[in-house]
């Protein structure tokens, strides 16, 4: 990505660099007009200026409501089952490495079914979930009985120090306003030898949509799904190494999108939509009541022959078959759709 080099209004939250390449103008709902700057040192692109904590909380709630209402109950059930199977697959992958986690923390747990999949493999785990959104926490506590913490992961929470064997952040780190303090916190909250597992979009491909609209038409894009960080595969790994993590598993997958031109081609159909300044308050005040009515029945969702007692081998095979990635590429070359990481606190 090329563009005008600017002095950022705030230093890079990953490496502290003050210079960036401006790659787009964006609107975050009707809450903030801002720009995306790509760091000239670590390659991570971020909103500049970044959102305030208040704006993030509001936008996240509006998005949660909008997304819940957009997806049918059927789709939500399918997603829950899919996340359960991914949890099973992930749990077996770490069991293979002789890991046996007891205390687990998930940041931004969504429906909580990924953790249910982990618990299927490790029945003795103790689960805590952290989210900024009370609705998400109440659902997780009522549906699964998890302990909950209402906070953003940037908050220093001393009571969590050295507590967890595993911390999970699936599709979360692209949403956090201060990635520097989040990675420091994850490190502090893990026990020595604990694992940090995340998935996050390939930032280059993700930011491409905004970049090409700005480059070709100078237009402001809608910041669709509240992403505020766009990670560079190399920059993200280097950041984790600086914070003393070591790499266990790190790859990207789903190359189809790159073949279609995302991250490479200046095509109109790949552009992010033009900003409509979507009204966050409308969802928060008018629509929230409709979300509360959605009920997911766990027995119903997990009513699959291979998830019945005594069928662990079948479950293991099916979850592997459906969710193992066949083609894995080094994230440092910034292709692929999503980055998968497992890092260890030594
Ligand atoms: Zn940087």
List descriptors.
346 residues, alpha/beta, Rossmann fold, 7-stranded mixed beta sheet, 13 strands, globular, binds zinc ion
Task: Describe it.
The protein has a seven-stranded mixed β-sheet with strand order 7-6-5-8-9-13-12, sandwiched between helices. It starts with a strand and ends with a strand. It has eleven helices and 13 strands. β5, α3 and β6 form a beta-alpha-beta unit. It has 346 residues and is α/β, with parallel strands linked by helices. The mean pLDDT is 93. It is 38% helix and 23% strand. α1 crosses α9 and α2 packs across α11. It is globular and about 60 Å long. It has one domain: Vaccinia Virus protein VP39 (Rossmann fold, 3-Layer(aba) Sandwich), CATH 3.40.50.150. The structure holds zinc ion. The site of zinc ion (ZN) has 8 residues, from loops.
Specify Rg, calculated over alpha carbons.
Answer: 20 Å
Biggest sheet, open or closed, and with what strands and sense?
7 strands, mixed
Quick one: overall form?
Answer: globular
Proportion in β-strands: 15-25%
Average pLDDT value? Answer: 93
CATH architecture: 3-Layer(aba) Sandwich
How many structural domains in the coordinates? 1
What is the CATH superfamily? Vaccinia Virus protein VP39
Name the strands of the widest sheet in spatial order.
7-6-5-8-9-13-12
The string of secondary-structure elements, in order, is EEEEHHEHEHEEHEHEEHEHHHHE
> What are the bound molecules?
zinc ion
Could you list the spans in which at least 5 consecutive residues all have pLDDT below 50? Answer: none
The tally of beta strands, per DSSP, is: 13
Distance between the termini: 35 Å
Q: Determine the structural class based on helices, strands and strand pairing.
A: alpha/beta
Total number of helices = 11
- CATH topology label: Rossmann fold
């Amino acid at each position: 990505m090329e563009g005008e080099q600017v002095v950022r209004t705030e230093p890079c939250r990953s490496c502290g660099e003050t210079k960036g390449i401006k790659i787009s103008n964006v609107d975050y709902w009707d809450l903030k007009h801002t720009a995306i700057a790509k760091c000239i040192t670590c390659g991570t692109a971020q909103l500049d200026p970044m959102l305030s904590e208040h704006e993030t909380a509001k936008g996240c709630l509006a998005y949660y409501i909008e997304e819940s209402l957009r997806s049918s109950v059927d789709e939500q059930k399918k997603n829950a089952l899919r996340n359960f199977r991914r949890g099973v697959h992930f749990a077996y992958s770490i069991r293979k490495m002789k890991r046996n986690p007891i205390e687990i923390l998930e940041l931004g747990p969504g429906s909580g079914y990924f953790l249910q999949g982990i618990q299927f493999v490790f029945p003795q785990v103790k689960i805590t979930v952290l989210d900024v959104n009370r609705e998400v926490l109440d659902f997780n506590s009522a549906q699964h009985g998890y302990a909950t913490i209402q906070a953003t992961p940037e908050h220093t929470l001393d009571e969590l120090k050295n507590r967890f064997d595993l911390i999970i952040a699936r599709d979360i780190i692209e949403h956090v306003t201060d990635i520097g303090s989040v990675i420091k916190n994850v490190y502090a909250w893990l026990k020595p030898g604990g694992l940090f597992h995340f998935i996050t979009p390939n930032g280059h491909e993700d930011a491409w949509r905004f970049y090409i609209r700005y480059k070709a038409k100078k237009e402001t894009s809608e910041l669709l799904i509240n992403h505020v960080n766009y990670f560079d595969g190399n920059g993200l790994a280097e950041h984790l190494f600086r914070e003393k993590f070591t790499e266990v598993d790190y790859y990207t997958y789903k190359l189809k999108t790159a073949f279609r031109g995302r991250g490479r081609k200046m095509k109109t159909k790949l552009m992010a939509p033009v900003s409509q300044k979507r009204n966050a308050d409308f969802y928060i005040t008018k629509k929230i009541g409709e979300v509360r009515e959605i009920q997911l029945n766990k027995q119903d969702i997990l009513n699959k022959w291979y998830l019945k007692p005594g069928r662990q081998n079948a479950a293991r095979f099916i979850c592997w078959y459906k969710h193992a990635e066949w083609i894995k590429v080094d994230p440092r070359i910034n292709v692929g759709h999503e980055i998968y990481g497992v890092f260890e606190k030594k």
